[in-house]
Amino acid sequence: MRLLSTKATCDTHGQGSSYFIGWEAYEKNPYDEVHNPKGIIQMGLAENQLSFDLLESWLEKNPDVSGFKRDGKSMFRELALFQDYHGLPSFKKALADFMSDIRGNKVTFDPNHMVLTAGSTSANETLMFCLAEEGDAFLLPTPYYPGFDRDLKWRTGVEIVPIQCTSSNNFQITEPALQQAYQDACKRNLRVKGVLVTNPSNPLGTTMSRSEMNLLVDFIKSQNDMHLISDEIYSGTVFSSPGFVSVMEVLKERNDLKDGDEIWNRVHVIYSLSKDLGLPGFRVGVIYSENDTVVAAATKMSSFGLVSSQTQYLLSAMLEDKKFTKNYIVENQKRLKRRQRMLVSGLKKAGISCLESNAGLFCWVDMRHLLHSNTFDAEIELWKNIVYKVGLNISPGSSCHCSEPGWFRLCFANMSEETLNLAMKRLKGFVVESTSTTQSHRSALFNASSKRNSLTKWVFRLSSRDHHRDQEER
Ligand SMILES: Cc1ncc(COP(=O)(O)O)c(C=O)c1O
């Protein structure tokens, strides 16, 4: 007799992926400067720890808020009892304004079109439940965030069909790749319910171009029942040009889609405070949709993953402080840029390059030259060496469903500068050692083959002498 349900035990969760195995390896042997200096450094976690001091100093200056008081009076009872699943109006308003500020106020968000969820994880799954039946499919450009296998597929039964993007054009989405993905889904008898993208991309660390977004909007528009979901969880992390353009801005700019066009009902934005504010533990996410039916359905479902009222209370006060948020956004981006540069130059010293990035908490790193062969087996072999021998937990491209072996995602914002420097030192040591091993292996092969050659010549000379002698003797 089975003790657990099929759903609980099936492997679509993705727990067996190298992405999660790397985390387990780190948890068993975590690096600590003092207590475990040889331990594994976690570079597989997209966490933003660079601006905690800004948040902490705000909390210090606003003790009433963290003490759950307003105008000196305790809010404890109100917060303990209150839980309307529509969310606190003041918080939704403050969050909507924060999202608009990040987009340079080129687009505005209406709090009535927002559904609060326990992080983007819950927001993405809730949207899947609202938009697709079990066995329907969403098209996703590769490489994509490994957590999507769990968030989009596991409990909903929705399928992901990859839009295969390649290094030949810096992993941008092309029309043929999009059409191919659609054909692949049709061949598998899957009904395509839409496209989901992350902008800026996890794991690429790049923003999407207007032309890519227009391509997707055209594709959705050409079909009656398709949706476009834009996961904009990293929108506040864009630290270099080209700047961030939200899908909402693209819709607004298009003359053929003026307000009222029904396509506005089929485009949805996902956001969370896990990355931009560095608060994944607070579990604050949101679905933004101009489709009232979607908002109503998602609100009904949000009971399974609400944001606690004390979190909403605290963050509404923080986000209402415009002077603080403005400064935070600018300063956080400055710090991310510095970190990204440190990683890029550290990698360069080790002879490793990465995709040019302008956003996110990670780089998409090209280690194809370190593979023994151009295969995913070789990628996993290299990855195991880096995790277990070098002591760096990085995420292999195959865990992000990349179609080319040899790419890895390396996170840079979840550690101190000293730890990042150590990580780069370890990686450089590994590259030097493995290239010199490869070289000595090659020269051993070369020596062996030149010995073989001279032996062959010697044998040839000997045998031709014998041949002459034979001739003479005859
Ligand atoms: C693209 C993307 N979407 C969603 C999530 C989940 O975020 P949250 O902590 O808000 O659930 C992540 C986290 O890494 C992510 O990278």
What is this structure's SSE topology?
Blueprint: H1 6-9, H2 18-28, E1 41-42, H3 52-61, H4 63-66, E2 69-70, E3 73-74, H5 76-81, H6 89-102, E4 114-117, H7 119-131, E5 137-141, H8 147-154, E6 159-163, H9 175-187, E7 192-198, H10 210-221, E8 227-231, H11 247-253, E9 267-272, E10 285-289, H12 292-301, H13 309-320, H14 322-349, E11 353-354, E12 362-366, H15 376-390, E13 392-393, E14 395-396, E15 407-411, H16 417-473
The protein binds pyridoxal-5'-phosphate.
The site of pyridoxal-5'-phosphate has 14 residues, from helix 7.
Keywords: Ethylene biosynthesis, Fruit ripening, Lyase, Pyridoxal phosphate, S-adenosyl-L-methionine
Pathway: Alkene biosynthesis; ethylene biosynthesis via S-adenosyl-L-methionine; ethylene from S-adenosyl-L-methionine: step 1/2
Cofactor: pyridoxal 5'-phosphate
List the keywords.
47% helix; globular; binds pyridoxal-5'-phosphate; Aspartate Aminotransferase, domain 2; alpha/beta; 16 helices; Aspartate Aminotransferase, domain 1; 474 residues; 15 strands; seven-stranded mixed beta sheet
Q: What can you see in these coordinates?
A:
The chain is globular and about 80 Å long. The model is unreliable at 455-474 (pLDDT under 50). The chain is α/β, with parallel strands linked by helices. Helix 7 (119-131) packs parallel to helix 8. The strands form four sheets. A seven-stranded mixed sheet has the order 4-10-9-8-7-5-6, with helices on both faces. Helices cover 47% and strands 12% of the residues. The protein contains 16 helices and 15 strands. The protein folds into two domains: 18-51 and 334-431, Aspartate Aminotransferase, domain 1 (Alpha-Beta Complex), CATH 3.90.1150; 62-325, Type I PLP-dependent aspartate aminotransferase-like (Major domain) (Aspartate Aminotransferase, domain 2, 3-Layer(aba) Sandwich), CATH 3.40.640.10.
